[in-house]
Amino acid sequence: MAVRDLDEVIEIEGCAAESTWTKGNFADSLNAGYWAYCLRRLAEDDDQSDELIAYCVLMPTIDELELLNITVHPSYRNKGYAQKILSIMDDVALSRSMQSIFLEVRVSNQPAISLYKKFGYEEFALRKDYYQKKALLVVEFLTELLLHRVMENNQPQQKHSKRKMK
Ligand SMILES: CC(C)(COP(=O)(O)OP(=O)(O)OC[C@H]1O[C@@H](n2cnc3c(N)ncnc32)[C@H](O)[C@@H]1OP(=O)(O)O)[C@@H](O)C(=O)NCCC(=O)NCCS
């Protein structure tokens, strides 16, 4: 993600009922050096632009990764894009020997909670004042994932039998 992406990003962000991010929040994240990525669909013709499908913002620390934002364009939901992003996050975090990935999600955001649980994230704590709403802190422990990968001969999609890409 770069500053030139932000008009499109904020357009999708505005469609997400659970969203709280402004263009300034994205710009601040880029300035702070957080990891921010856009997933685009390559245009079939040269005169068309590559459509923005999803984006995410991650804050790395020495041994943890915090997922600050993950959003999929409403027209592309339930097609496995968020799971693909979570899967890439696992790979990146493991390649840097990180211990865990965590995030906060509003208790009212059932689609997201279902997604994280399906992916193996566990509830860790309940926070009562997250943008004036209750939120769950959920975490994925990567040592467990690493063990599964070793045991399953490096086939990451098989860690959680519930994980399925559409
Ligand atoms: C949450 C979000 C990122 C999911 O993206 P997605 O690309 O649609 O998700 P995927 O297709 O990769 O994964 C599908 C899984 O997510 C969960 N899920 C997605 N939409 C759901 C819905 N409407 N109701 C219940 N579960 C849902 C389910 O676990 C589903 O698996 P299933 O089909 O086996 O039940 C997307 O809905 C979104 O962008 N929401 C707005 C922004 C947001 O809330 N971000 C999370 C903030 S913490």
Write up what this structure looks like.
With 166 residues, this protein is α+β, with helices and mostly antiparallel strands. A 6-stranded mixed sheet has the order 1-2-3-4-6-5, sandwiched between helices. It has 5 helices and 6 strands, in the order ααβββαβαββα. The chain has a single domain, classed as Aminopeptidase. Bound molecules: coenzyme A (COA). Coenzyme A binds at residues 16, 18, 70-72, 77-83, 103, 105, 109-112, 114-115, 118.
Q: Main traits of this protein?
A:
166 residues; alpha+beta; Aminopeptidase; 6-stranded mixed β-sheet; binds coenzyme A
> Which class of secondary structure composition applies to the elements?
alpha+beta
Number of strands: 6
**Span between N and C termini?**
25 Å
The DSSP helix count reads 5
Question: Share of helix among residues?
Answer: 25-40%
How much of the sequence is in beta strands? 25-35%
Biggest β-sheet: count, sense, barrel? 6 strands, mixed
Set out the fold topology.
Elements: H1 6-13, H2 23-32, E1 35-41, E2 51-60, E3 64-72, H3 81-95, E4 100-106, H4 110-118, E5 122-130, E6 133-141, H5 142-151
Parallel strand pairs: 3-4
Antiparallel strand pairs: 1-2, 2-3, 4-6, 5-6
Bound molecules: coenzyme A (COA).
Coenzyme A (COA) binds next to strand 3, helix 3, strand 4 and helix 4.
Give a short synopsis of this structure.
With 166 residues, the chain is α+β, with helices and mostly antiparallel strands. Helices cover 31% and strands 31% of the residues. It is built from five helices and six strands, in the order ααβββαβαββα.
